[in-house]
Design goal:
It is a single chain. The protein is α+β, with helices and mostly antiparallel strands. The chain folds into 2 domains: 49 residues, no CATH class; 51 residues, GCC-box Binding Domain, CATH 3.30.730. 17% of the residues lie in helices and 38% in strands. The protein has a 3-stranded antiparallel beta sheet, covered by helices on one side. Strands 1-2 form a two-stranded antiparallel ribbon. A two-stranded antiparallel sheet has the order 3-4. The longest helix is centred in the last third of the chain and has 11 residues. The chain is elongated and about 55 Å long. The two termini are 23 Å apart.
């Protein structure tokens, strides 16, 4: 991905390493300021994403275990899913999942 930026009127380019990605720090793909772009791995880019608008749960890495009536926090590291714990409150599960990413 190539992102064009401007600095003091001069056009510059942000080119990530060929095996890496260009990530928008604030998740706004229209904000091409150099301060908002970072060179990262594909895994880091995937970790910095929003929950899908049609997702059944509000937060990434949080799901509902209906049988026990608990919220479960989990993350993926190198393709392996890691269980982080179960919680009574959804925000507690979110906080655990976010601090591990």
């Amino acid at each position: 991905m190539l992102a064009s930026t401007t600095s003091a009127g001069a056009a510059t380019e942000f080119r990530p390493h060929p095996r890496n990605a260009c990530d928008y720090v604030n998740r706004d793909g229209l904000d091409d300021r150099k301060a908002n772009l970072r060179n990262c791995t594909i895994a880091q880019n995937n970790a910095n994403r929003r929950s899908a608008s049609n997702a059944s749960f509000q937060y990434i890495g949080v799901s509902r275990e209906r049988r026990r009536n608990k919220w479960v926090a989990h993350i993926k590291i190198n393709g392996d899913e890691k269980y982080l714990g179960s919680f009574d409150i959804e925000e507690d599960a979110r906080n655990k999942a976010e601090c591990r990413t």
